[in-house]
Amino acid sequence: MKRKFVIPIIFLAVSIAGCSNPQTPAITANANIVEDDHTGAEIQSNSISEGEDTTSSVQITEQVKPTQARSNISAEDNPDNLIQTDTPQEQEQLSPTKKATRVLTSNAWKGLPVIPQVSKNVKSIYQRGLELNNNPNAYSKIGDCGSTPAWFLGDFDRGPEYYNLGEYTKLLEVIQEFNGSHERVSLGARAGFNAPSLFVSLWSDIEHCQPDEGPLECEYRVNRPVMAFIMLGANDIWHPDEFEPSMRKIIEYSINNGVIPILSTKADNQEGDGSINFAIARLAQEYDIPMINYWRAVQDLPDQGLQEDGVHLTWGKNDFSDPKYLETAWTIRNLTALQTLDAVWRTATDQEPQ
Predict the structure, then answer these.
(1) Does 260 map to a domain?
(2) Which residue range(s) make up the domain with 343?
(3) In sequence order, which residues have a C-beta less than 8 Å from that of residue 209 and are 6 or more positions away?
(4) Span 266-283, mean pLDDT?
(5) Residue 14 lies inside a defined structural domain of this protein
(6) Three-class secondary structure of residue 41 per DSSP
(7) Neighbours of 40 (CB within 10 A)
(8) DSSP string for residues in 241-282
(9) For 159-173, what is each residue's pLDDT tens digit?
């Protein structure tokens, strides 16, 4: 028995040590990044050729200006390598539980857009959520310490003095629409979480969860969201064989409960072969659900947006008006997450995209 719990406890301790919460001051007109906000001095850039995103199903939206001009792709990474065996008409009629037959080949995931072109499949999932009495103004965050409010989207509930939308003022509408979700502490996000842990009751909050509930089930029961950011993979390198089966369970559980799963690739490549991001992108295509290609968004940031350990992201304020903050990975993560939330919400509710 003892041996069973040694590894998770030690690993959690390491994760907590590496994920201490930043203290976000209010944004002022002359706010500057201090030296400690950027780890690593050299700017690394990926060599990428022209010939970017030639298929209409993977176009980058106009919103993503900080990342749009940066991340091009090489010929072998072109999303033309996406094999699509369903017709677009068939895909639009998918039920919440039916999977699209779409398969990514090679490194094609690297060329997928940062902000997804959202399929109408999300409307079916959204409608199911409303039928199940999910809250149309709530979303959840599922993941490790990087999914907690101090890092991810929390500032957008704290008031306008903690963020500056710059030219992205249209995002204010979606911020207000999901007021209360941004700073909420999720029962499905904790330091050290990997994909399998979302179904283990040992990791659930004993104050809010039932004895037999895993963190995912507990979070959805308590919060009743219509959408969920699912950001996993960094802690799954130790048991990579368990990642994809567990992600399938998370996706299918979400869809069956009327929760639109929003996946995201990760910035790091600790596994060495990009296989975790490949699996995430493959699943997003297979289930016809939205995915933020966050890996692509950070490729031309200094040090690809990573600190010296090659895992943790560089931190910056949520000031989208200041170019130096748009050179930090956390600022870009929050911006792309808001843009994706806006795109998914508008598609699900039959609104015109911005």
Answers:
(1) yes
(2) 63-348
(3) 187, 201, 215, 218, 222
(4) 92
(5) no
(6) coil
(7) 15
(8) HHHHHHHHHHHHHHHHTT-EEEEE--S--TTSS-HHHHHHHH
(9) 999 999 999 999 999
